[in-house]
Structures are given as C-alpha cells and as structure tokens.
Amino acid sequence: MLLEYREKDSLQKQNRPLYFPKPLKIVPVAHCEPIVRLQFYPFQTPQAEKNGGQGRAVPKTRAQLGRYLSVSRDGILNYWSERFKLTRTVNLDQLKRAPPSTSIQQIWVTDMICLSNLNLLAIASTGRDVGVYACVEPAASACEEFYDISASKCDIVFSLTGLEGYAVVMDYWSDGTKAVFSIGDIEGYVSVFISSDVLQYGLFNSGAFKSGGNCRIPVPALLKNTSKYFLCFKVALHNNWCHQIRFLPELNAVATCCASDQTSMVLTTVPHSQKAKIHNSFFQLRKGILCFDYSPEFNILVTGGFDRIVRIWNPYVNNCATSQMKGHSTAITHIVVNSSDNKIISISKDKNVRVWDLQDCACLQNIHSRNVTMSRFPISSVHYNRDTNTLVLATFLIGVLHGVVDDVDTVHKLQTSHEQPLCTALYNTNFKQVVSGCHNGVVSVWEILTGEKVMQFQTSPEKAVEVTAMTFDGPKRRLITGSKDGSLRLWNFNNGALLATLPILNDNEVTGVIYINQRIYVSGWSKRVMWYLDVKEDMEMEYRIWNQYHAEDIYSMHAHGNKMLVTASYSGDIIVWNIDSGRAFCRFNACESSRPLLPNRVIDRSAFDRFEASESKGSFDESEWTDSSEYRGEATVSHSSQGVSVGPGAPPPHPPSPQEDKDSSCSSPPEMIQEESGAEKENERTHQKKSPKQRHKSGKPQPISAKELEKPRLAVEKALFLGTRERSPDTAILLTSAADGYVYAWSIHHLGGLLGKFRAVHSEGTAITTMSTDLQDQMLLTGDSTGYIMVVDGWSVSLTPPPLLSSWRGHLKGIVSLEYVERFRLIVTASLDCNVRLWTIAGSYIGTFGQAQWCVGDHHAFPWELPVDLRRVGSCQTLKVLNQGTQPHWNCAKRILETLTQQKLRHTAMASTASDLQELVPADPRIAQYSNDQIEETWQHWQEKGKQTSAILGLAYKQKVRHRPSCPLDLQVSFSSREQLRVYKSMPCTSLLPIIQPPVPELLKEQQQKTQDGADMLGKQKRNNKRGAHVRFSSAKGARRKSIAPKQQIRGGSSIA
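The line above is the sequence of WD repeat-containing protein on Y chromosome; the predicted structure tokens follow.
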C-alpha cells in the first residue's frame, strides 16, 4: 500500500501543470545601471480610492488596470504600459539640476515607492532626504523626494530632509483615509509617519515648512508631533542596514528585516497616540533575513536569507519557524506569497526561480538560471501581479513570466471596458485614439489600432459624478466634459491634466456640448442653450444664455457647419438656431405638423405667477424683469407643465425692457405655420378666466392628460445634420430619431418640413438612441435601445424606405454612442453594458476595449471567438453577419429550427388525421361490424405476410431492405498520436452471418477413412523399420563387448597371480 501511494504521488507530480508554463519574455531596456525598483501604478477609480491607494482590495472579478514604473540606479525613470511598451522616459538627474551654473553631484537612487491615491512618487537617493514627486521619481543628494505624476508629468513637490542615514527602503499603505509611510535607512533606524486623513490633510504637515520653490520638510521637526492629525516616531531596531520594510495592517505593525543574527526581523507595533508605548517583537536567525512576505489569509510570514532556506513563521511565535523548504543553492533575495493558489515564489541570487506548495512544502517548479537569460547580474527588483499571475523580474533588462490563471475564462467574461455604463465614446483623428466616459466619472483613452488603454483619469476627484457629454475642441487636442451636476471642464486627455473649469450657470445635467468658432455651446436639462467663449487663462471668461424655447429637457444637439445649431427635446420639439445671432428661426414637431412652425418663447412659470400676483395687487417690481427681452408685435401665451410659452397673437406677459438683447430676441419668417389644437386654446381661455387666487386655491392634483402620457413616445433621442447637403425645400438636411423607432427627414427651408420617415428598428417599443454618418453622408449608421446596429444606404428621400445594407446585434443593452472611423472603415460603439467595441463596416467583430488586444490591418491578430454574450443570445442574422458566412454556425441553427418546425407540423397533421379517423370509424358500416381486437389481429397478420406479397410478382416479391447503421459512430475521441487514422465518415454495413457447412456424403466419408487408415499403416511400418535397424546395431555392439571382457579378466588374474 505504501508503494502504491508513492507511485500515485509520483504520477500526480509528473502530470501536474506548470505554474509558469511559458518561457521568460525579455523586454530590452536602455539602462547603463540596474533597475532599482519596479512598481505598478494603477489607474485611479472611485472604487480604488475607497479600497486603498495600493489597490489591495480590488474586486476579484476584475483585474486592475494601470501602468508600470521603473527607475534605474542613475535616475532614469521609465513609464511602461501593461504590455511593457515604453511610453515615456524622464531623466531625474537633469530634472533636479536647477541653473546650469550650479553643479550638482549625480544622484544615486536607492528605492522608489508609488503613492497611488495621492498621485505621488517617492524616491530615495544617496542623501539624507526623501523626495516626493508629483510624478513619483527619485531624489538626489541623499534625500527622499516626492514627484507629482497625476498627469504624466514629473514635478518635484517636496522633500524630506534631516534623516540619520541614507534611506534604502520605503513602504506606503493607505485605506483611502489613513496612511502610513515608513522609511528604513542604512544605520538601522526606522521612521514611521502616520496621517489620520491623507486626502484631506496630506501625508505630512508640510504647510509649516515651505521654503523656496519646493517644500523641504525636516524630519526632526515632524518628530515633534505638533499636529493632532499626524503621528511620527523613530526607533533604532537593527545594527545593520534594512533590507526590506512593510506595514502590515492586519497586525498593526511595521515589519523590517536585515542580515543580522540578533535582529533578523522585527515587528514594531504602531501606537494609537503619542503617549502609547511602542512594542517590538524580535526574530532571531543565523545569518539574518534578506526578504519576507506576509499572507493575511493564513496569518503567516514567509522569509528567505543567506542560509538558502525558505521558512514559514507564526507572527506570534518568534523563537522558531513552523516549516522549512530547502532547494536553493545561493542566498534567497526575493520572495512572494499567493494565498489564493497556496503558492510561494522564491528567487535566489543566481536567478533560480522556484515555486513551492504552501501546504505540502514541496517544490512544484524549478526554473533554472540558464532559462533566465537576463545578463550576469542578480535580480534587483521583483513585482508579482496576483490578479493575472504575472511575475516581473528586473536587472539591466526586464523579464516577464506569465502564469496560469485557473478561472481565466470567467475573468474575461466578467471583464468590461468600464465599471459603469457608458455615456459616450469619441474618436480623435489626430492621435488615433478612442476616448470614452462612463457614469462613474472615469474617462479612458484607448489606442484604436491595438485596443490598449493608454490613460485613465477621474473627472471629479472629490466624488464620483456621472459624465453625461463629451466633445473635442477645434484642433482636437483638448477634451471638454459635461457632468450630471452641470460642471464643465477642459482636459488634456493625453495625460489627464485639468486645464480649466468653466463657471456653473445651473446645476442641471448637461446632455450636449459642441465646440464652434472658439465657443463652447452647452445644452441639457436646463432647457436652455448657453455658450462660453474659449479664452486664455489670464482673460476673463465670457458667456451668454439664449432665450428658452424648450418646455422640456433637451436631449440632443448638433451643428451644421458653423452657421446653424439644432436642439431636440423630450416633448418632440426640434428648434433650429442661428449661431451668429442666437435666434431660434424654425421649429418642428412631427406630432403637431409636418410643416415648419414658429418657435414659442417659454418663460419661467414661477416668475410668471409672481408677475400676475403683483399685477393683481397693483404693484409691479420692474427689477424682476430687467433680464428679459422685448418682444416686437403681438403675442399669445400658452401654458405647459414646466413653463409658459409665448407666441404671436396675445399681449406680452411682461412689460417691455428698455432695449433688446440680440441673443435673446426672436424673429421668424412669415411663412411659418403656428398650429394650436382646440384643447390647448380651451385651456388657455380657461386659464385666462381664472384669477390668481383661484389658481392658487386649487391645490388638488390634476389628472395626467393624454398629451403628457404621449410625451415619452414623442421624445426626440437624436438630431443629426447632413453637412454635405444644401438647404432647399426638397432636400432633407436634418435627420431625427424618435422614441417610436422612426427616422424622420426634415427640410429646414421655410417652404420645407417633413419630407419622409422610415422605421429603423426590428421590434415594437425600441427607440433609436444614436446615429452617425460618413463624411460624404452616403451611409447612415444607427444604434437602438436593444443593442442592434444598422447600416442604411444613403437616403434620397422617396416613397420607399432606404435599403438596409447590414444589421447585427452588437451589445446586450442600449447603444449610447456610435461613431464611424472613415480612415480605417471601422465602427466604434459604446453601450450601457459597460463595453466599448470595435467593428468593421461589414459587421466583423474586432474586439472589446479592455479585453484582448488586436492589430488593425492584420486579420490574424483579431480575436477568434465572438463575445460570449452575443454567442448566447445572438439571432441567426447576427451570427451570420459576425461570422461573415465563412463559419455558418447560424445556418446549422436555422436548419435545426426548420426541422423542428416541420416535425411539429407533421405531428399536428398526424394528430388531426387520427382524430378524423376516429370520427370516420363509427360512421362507416363496413368497419363498424369488426371489433378492435379483430382489426388489430388483421393488421398484425398483414404485417407478417400480407405486405410481402405483390399483386404482380406474387410471393416472389421481397421488400427492399435499407441498410442503416444502428447508431452513429462516436467521433469524440482523443488521440494520443498524430499518425493514428481518424474516422470521419462510415459506410453503411450489416453484421456478417455465421457460415453453415453442408453435410458430407457417406461415400466421401468412407473414402476419407480409407485414405486415413492407409496413411496410418504406412507410417507405422516406417517406424518399425527404423526400430529394427537400431536393434541390430545395438546387438552387434554388445557382442563385441562380451568378447573383450574375458581377456581383461585373464590379464587381471595373471597379474594378481
């Protein structure tokens, strides 16, 4: 039994998959010195900020996105993408050199740490300072410097000075509120800096120590603890320089290690106040400890050192280790623990990488140093990504080991482009990038040629506010975002830098932003159109608000060149504006009239009620109406649920103002038609008869009218100008899509109007949410609320709908943005299912941003499989378009459905025939005289004999037999050898019958018997003859022996005598 278990264990070890099955991938780096530290800098999202700066509590279903930062010993800082593509290089030595006249000694970087939730980078160099950069970079002259890297810049923010020795190791931890920054120096001192609220008060009390351009903070002044929001302490723990330091929040302690026997590793508890006592727990080990890692799931410490042994410790038992693992031949320099897989990864000085099982304490994989071709120097830095099981090694080069992820399919299924639904996605022709924004306030920048994310930033750092509208400026170098709270911001989307914040005129949601003629036009739920003048930073911002002509929220806005602007609202009103004068000269509403209508001015209802009340009392305050404009001519007043609309035919609702504002005035051609229904006129007359007191007294809720119930169906979701068409009565240059699923074509000429419409959805209750065209307006692309994409031929208005070129389902939820990329003939779609996808114009799926990458132009680099959600719910037409007909799985499904339908019809026909037969049997007298048993017996008799006879051939007739295999062959067989033949098709066959031998005649039997007897006798005679000759020879030989024997006796006797 022991041998059996031993063999089974050996077989299991041989068949166990490798943890790192792929060979090491080498990334060349142009460094003259080795890389000191390699860090992963995650893109910041509100979830990441809540979970902590280092991203240790990221949801398991979604891998954290970001970029890598590496710094060499001579101060070369490199930015890398997730695929280790070099994006930027910064020389920190040149950055630190102030005037050229001052000669500063070249820096020597010792360590680097990312403060991700603060967008800072701390770098320690050969000095007694620590520099913090707004771009996380190293410091020179024995210091720690902090750099600002919030927008891919690299500006030094402040420095820590006055350390006892050179800072060699650092660590930073934050849960979003509290932060702990730790430093270990070359003298064995450990300094810990704690901030109670790092986002509000910062990491250090730097406000009291500003001097010069950047802030230099002396550490002795911080150790005095003059502020209640900060706590700092310094302890002497080691008699040698620290090799590693880390704060363990589960133990509330700072762990440090060094190559000393007495203080190999020390756990220092973090006090809660200045008066609390600091406790130290010492771990002693011969030759010390060089590296360690902590597993909060198992509450264990794993260490490695010069003795080449991997040890597992209980944090509360410091006298001996609980387990040991031997196998390395040189000192262990780096070690990491993956608790989810129960694995330990250790790296020794000779670049030997070993993977250990945490439970069995056995080596699972040994990657020899000859397979780690990274120069002759030992590994200087290691980063392990537990989400993707990727180990990154660094010397002068960078090596990447990709491991196996157990549930990689599930991770890819759950991974989306954004964490929240999308609001829009734009394509920038200058940089060949796609910019997308989501309801979480996060903006992501993607490379359209590869699908790689190059930048991500948060538009509202304080709290997550939904991004509702985006656009580029004229040169397409800046991004303009509008949010749900009405805020407008200008960004450098290449590095995430906030350039300007526009003044908030109202706190309503922004639904449309357009940049025309150095002006930013904005519309939204405020029901108004406003513009801001794009000026430089030192100039005063100029803005203006146009008159209100919409009684409901504005849903869409678009421009025709730089002369006309169109806005569409929830009530179905479509207003066309003159951009230069700001006047609304045309209105359309498909439910009111097919002809152009006069725009109706809408006044705030509360202001109108205040005016009527003051007028009834005989008092009038002119200050309330100073911002209003004069209306020329007569006007009528009609009331709506949101405000009061003013049109021709009634006195003005307010006294005329002294002068007319040209941006607030309105003039319309006399040919326009103003239509009012009888119900509206009756409501106006009733409203005019009522006094203000009666209207205020009637506080009972009124029943919802049919018009209000009809408004959701009349809402215009999208308005689109066709820029290449000229304005004429019979030319449609404006397309609108309503919630009823129709696309309407309008001529904005005063003799024009609605020229036609067609249905562009597959089912009832579906709305067209977005539209786009090519540059020549020869092709219309639409996206609806169910996720379908349609490509329609260019529509010259006629009585027949335009031909549908292609249609497929691209998302499971509604599409909010669709844009056609003319240069590559691609379609970019953004949906409420949190995905941004790329398609060809023919409907081929290229990929989803944030998942597998691709290469536009190389069809072999496209993903082989379609999205899982589309494969699960896609129709035959969708699968046909996505597969381009080359893989007709849709055809097989269609044939199966047709077969099932035919079988169902056949069963239905048979059931109806049987019912008819049951009705016919009792009625026929020839059948009624027989019982059921007799009929069954006759049927069986005919089956046995009757059907085998023929009226022509008689009994000689035999029915044809169709040879069919009893069951299909099981072709789902795994083959171990490629040379083995595989059966793909079998011929029909039947099993062979046994051979029946005919009887042998008696005469033949006698003859065979005689022949056998003769042969036996002949053989017997031959054997006898041979035996006789042998006897004669034996007898002769015996006689000869008898004649010799007497002679011997005589001789013997004579001799005896």
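Note on the example: The first helix runs from residue 2 to 15. The longest strand covers residues 35-42.
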